[in-house]
Description:
Blueprint: H1 3-12, H2 16-25, H3 36-46, E1 60-63, E2 67-72, H4 81-112, H5 120-148, E3 158-163, E4 168-172, E5 181-184, E6 189-190, E7 207-211, H6 213-216, E8 222-226, H7 233-248, H8 278-283, H9 286-296, H10 302-315
Antiparallel strand pairs: 1-2, 2-3, 3-4, 4-5, 6-7, 7-8
Helix pairs in contact: 1-10, 4-5
Amino acid sequence: MYFVEWLTWLAYIDPKEEREAFEKQHKKVKRKITYESDDQEMIEAAKKPANNSPRSRGPVYVYNEHILEMRCGMWEDKRGLISIISLAFIAYSLVNFAIALEDIKSLISLSLNYNGEPYGEQLFMGSLFFTLGVGALWLYLKYGLRFTRFEMFTSRHLLIRFNRTTQQVYLHRPTYCGGIVTLPWHGVTSGGSDKKYATAGGVGLPLELLWPPSFAGALHPELVHVGKAANNYTEQQAEWEFIRRFMDEGPEGLPRPRITSHFPWPWQAFTPQFEGLTRYFRTSSRITKLGLVRADNQGLPWLSIDQRLKIRLFGISKPPISG
Length: 323
């Protein structure tokens, strides 16, 4: 789902005035200053084996001697939520238009054979429902359509491609999130390389890959999430070790992952919401399982998402200079 990536991109390109106002408003947030030596230490850690049982939980779309292509992007478990809300707005508008159309048809029929019957109520109701339909449609087109396009009018998933031959990594993003980005493999760091680099409370999140600004070729770091949400840190380490061995040593000796089709099967919109909950589902009662699914779909308030992203992005390096 593109919502987090879109907010991340907005945080990168925020005007200087907005960034300064945000930092002034959040003075109590302690920013971690990252030095070049820290970056080098993380890069060196990413070159070492992290797990003795490398395994990819996928989804993997292409896997051969030279290329590994996987799903990229955060919050796949919320996929479908925006579509449901969008369809609700569209359905509301259509229902109002349908009711208004019935009243208009009655008024037209009445005007053709008018015998003094009252028509004020039909005129009022027709006008009311037509206005409600137009108003809802206008609000959706003005404020909601740009969110709907994240799911309905774009590729189903963000992709990340690891190329052993060129030793480069390609992030496939929409044009409004920076487009395709090419990054050097030798500059990558990962939360799966060592527990001290893992995101706090990272269970339930996909594997995190990070390129410092010096390797990203920009004034900001490149942060991406790869694969499925993890049930535990061991799964993140196994996923990272699978990618590391593929790029550094080749596919020999690695378990062949299950290949996922690019075709947008309907169930792909619902199965991701169970990622990161497998171990709880195995031992929980039915009531608890329903609660887990409901809690997993609650998410965070949209405003706090933007704020937390800015704090996270600007906390690991100096804020990017606009321009």
